[in-house]
Design brief:
210 residues, alpha+beta, 4 helices
Length: 210
């Protein structure tokens, strides 16, 4: 804490007094940086924080007035911060911010990849793999029906276009298998009709022969 007088700053007490910086009532002359603000300091006004590089080194200094009960400024609380220390702190803060930002980006990208793999890549790969298996059965109803069961087991529930694609694909394969079953059934019925017709034809020929 300082009391500002025309001859300089008089120390009231120094929190670093134990380190031997300033004794009580020690006089500290004004640095050139502070000279334009001496009139305001003598009147007890607030001055802006000042960056100086004078006799006491590269400092950022802030003076805050202390008033008595009558509103008169009796002294100033002064705080000096080393700009070297501040710059080091800023660099460390910037470094930590960059590291945290990189970690956040990695997490976001990783989460995005996981979501896209779970809800896009894996479902589409599953549909594609089963589509190839389904086509490979080459009209075999039993094999294709087994593929349909495997497709149902995919149970894709993404709530988007992928699920719509899956539902359409499943419906198409079910309809295809059902159509093949119906065609095979029609073929069997047609064969039975032809066999019955042949039997009746042979019977008629035998009857006419005898």
């Amino acid at each position: 804490m300082y009391q500002i007088r025309e001859d300089g700053c008089h120390v009231i007490f120094d929190t670093d007094e134990g380190s031997g910086d300033y004794a009580v009532d020690a006089l500290i002359e004004f640095d050139p940086t502070f000279l334009p603000y001496v009139p305001d300091l003598l009147e007890g006004k607030q001055i802006p924080a000042l960056e100086s590089n004078d006799s006491y080194g590269w400092l950022l200094t802030h003076y805050h007035p202390v008033f008595d009960s009558n509103g008169k400024c009796v002294c100033y609380v002064g705080v000096d911060i080393s700009m070297v220390l501040l710059r080091t702190y800023r660099l460390k803060f910037l470094f930590r911010t960059i590291i945290l930002s990189l970690v956040a980006v990695i997490l976001v990208v990783g989460l995005g990849l996981w979501i896209s793999t779970k809800f896009l890549v894996n479902p589409i790969n599953g549909i594609s793999r089963h589509a190839i298996d389904f086509i490979g059965k080459n009209g075999n109803a039993d094999g294709m029906n087994t593929c349909v069961s495997a497709i149902k087991n995919l149970d894709i529930r993404t709530g988007d276009e992928v699920e719509n694609l899956y539902a359409s694909f499943l419906k198409m394969t079910e309809n295809t298998v059902q159509n093949i079953i119906d065609i095979n059934k029609m073929q069997e019925e047609l064969i039975q009709i032809m066999q019955k017709y042949n039997e009746e034809l042979e019977k008629n020929v035998e009857e006419r022969t005898y």
